[in-house]
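User: Just a sanity check before I run the rest of the batch. Below are the structure tokens for the first item. I only need the designed sequence back.
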């Protein structure tokens, strides 16, 4: 009798790619054959959708038959305020406008029963502008003085360039100049009308040959600290202009005055003061206006509208379910002894845990993606149908939110798996992960904590990962309440997600080390 002594393939070869795929297939089979886990996954999708839609199901401001209400959109597709008083003529072809702004003043409401306060708001503005048309959201470039931030050149709502600093006063006028050459508009400022400083030069592709140009004034609402928190009151700004110096082909006749737009929830008029108007004395003009020419940033100035992340508020509820599933996927095997059988058949414990992470992470990713992809269009249509404004975002931003929600869920599930491996007890692991992710999120966004504490929670805890769902931008030139309670996260979307990813990687790495170093 002979014996075949042909050597077996090395263990490292058996543990290669085919070995890992076999392990992954085995872990997937375990997951899908446990009815409780499958039902929990379905519940996570449903609860995410239900809580998100119920949270935005309030009756709208419009009555029956009220159509959708949308924010005006700027050239880049962003939501904008485009509300100001304009004194204008038509400019055809190349040309320019130069004028001295001799003063900038303002008045604001401070509260019911109190006298209005004098003084221009920090971002009140008066200056000169060239705009494609009087339609809200149309392209423009403008040179202006502000109440507290010096001279600026702004264009197409999101572009803001600082010019000379200092306030405008009767003894400190500002000369402003805006020159068009084709699609390029260049802004200048001067303290004496002789020596000029170029502020910025912008390209407005497709600008028509004939544009509207002239003087404008606008003022965002005044920010007020009240017993109930930060509030806003209506304000107006008034600019006094000298005689304009026109270059190029301007339309003849008198200057026209137009209130562009309404107020988009950002400004208004207090009792006895009109929203805007102008007077002409000799060759000079006095222009009064309210509103703003700026992007809508969210927070109180949204005027009761919804942002995309409002429809995803149910994510925290779905995460609680996924955390329970992620921990049970390992602690259940500890409890039943199945893990001992698994590591006997597959000695590479790191490979086992890696396969579990891919399974539970992949399932959670699908849950988050599906829930977000279903909730967003339904929530948006429902809100618009009830007369609410919905903050518009680009297709790329919406895709990032949907994919980001999937990644958020996947990362949290892997974090739960790692913590479950370390603690071996489902209840303790679930409580710890929920306390580190969901609890900080609820505390930070509910407004029960001071803004500084809320920002701290969303910077250093795993709850920072919720930033991946944020669509509300921050613009330094727009006055708002940039706090977690009003929808803002202190970290950029992918930076916040990286914080969560770091926690998950740490927990998983420690879990691998711990699993390799102790009996199961």
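Assistant: Here's the designed sequence for the first item:
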């Amino acid at each position: 009798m002979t014996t075949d002594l042909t050597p077996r393939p090395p263990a490292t070869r058996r543990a290669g790619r085919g070995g890992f795929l076999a392990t992954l297939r085995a872990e997937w089979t375990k997951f899908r054959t446990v009815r409780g886990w499958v039902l929990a996954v379905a519940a996570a999708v449903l609860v995410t959708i239900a809580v998100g839609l119920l949270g935005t199901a309030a009756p709208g401001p419009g009555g029956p038959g009220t159509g959708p209400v949308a924010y005006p959109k700027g050239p880049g597709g962003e939501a904008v305020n485009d509300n100001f008083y304009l004194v204008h003529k038509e400019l055809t072809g190349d040309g320019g406008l130069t004028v001295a702004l001799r003063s900038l003043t303002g008045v604001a409401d401070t509260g019911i029963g109190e006298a209005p306060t004098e003084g221009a708001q920090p971002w009140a503005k008066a200056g000169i502008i060239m705009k494609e048309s009087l339609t809200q959201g149309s392209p423009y470039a403008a040179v202006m003085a502000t109440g507290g931030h010096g001279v600026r050149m702004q264009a197409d709502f999101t572009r803001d360039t600082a010019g000379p600093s200092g306030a405008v006063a009767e003894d400190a006028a500002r000369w402003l100049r805006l020159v068009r050459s084709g699609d390029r508009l260049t802004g200048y400022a001067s303290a004496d009308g002789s020596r000029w400083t170029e502020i910025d030069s912008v390209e407005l592709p497709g600008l028509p040959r004939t544009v509207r140009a002239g003087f404008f004034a606008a003022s965002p609402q005044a920010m007020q600290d009240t017993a109930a928190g930060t509030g806003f009151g209506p304000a107006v700004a008034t600019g006094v202009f000298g005689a304009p110096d026109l270059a190029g082909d301007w339309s003849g006749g008198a200057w026209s005055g137009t209130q562009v737009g309404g107020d988009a929830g950002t400004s208004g008029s207090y009792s006895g003061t009109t929203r805007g108007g102008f007077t002409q004395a000799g060759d000079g003009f006095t222009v009064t206006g309210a509103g703003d020419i700026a992007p809508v940033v969210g927070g109180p100035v949204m005027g009761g509208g919804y942002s995309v992340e409002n429809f995803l508020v149910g994510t925290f509820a779905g995460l609680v379910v996924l955390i329970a599933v992620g921990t049970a996927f390992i602690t259940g095997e500890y409890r039943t002894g199945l893990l001992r059988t698994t590591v006997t058949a597959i000695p590479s414990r790191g490979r086992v845990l890696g396969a579990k992470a891919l399974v539970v992470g992949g399932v959670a990713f699908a849950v988050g993606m599906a829930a977000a992809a279903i909730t967003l269009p339904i929530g948006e249509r429902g809100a618009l149908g009830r007369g609410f404004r919905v903050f518009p975002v680009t297709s790329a931003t919406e895709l990032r939110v949907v994919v980001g929600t999937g990644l958020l869920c996947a990362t949290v599930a892997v974090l739960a798996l790692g913590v479950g491996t370390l603690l071996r007890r489902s209840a303790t692991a679930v409580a710890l992960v929920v306390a580190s992710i969901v609890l900080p999120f609820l505390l930070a966004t509910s407004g029960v904590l001071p803004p500084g504490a809320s920002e701290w929670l969303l910077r250093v805890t795993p709850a920072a990962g919720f930033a991946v769902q944020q669509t509300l931008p921050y613009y330094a030139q727009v006055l708002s309440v940039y706090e977690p309670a009003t929808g803002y996260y202190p970290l950029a979307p992918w930076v916040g997600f990286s914080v969560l990813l770091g926690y998950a990687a740490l927990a998983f790495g420690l879990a691998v080390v711990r699993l390799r170093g102790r009996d199961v």
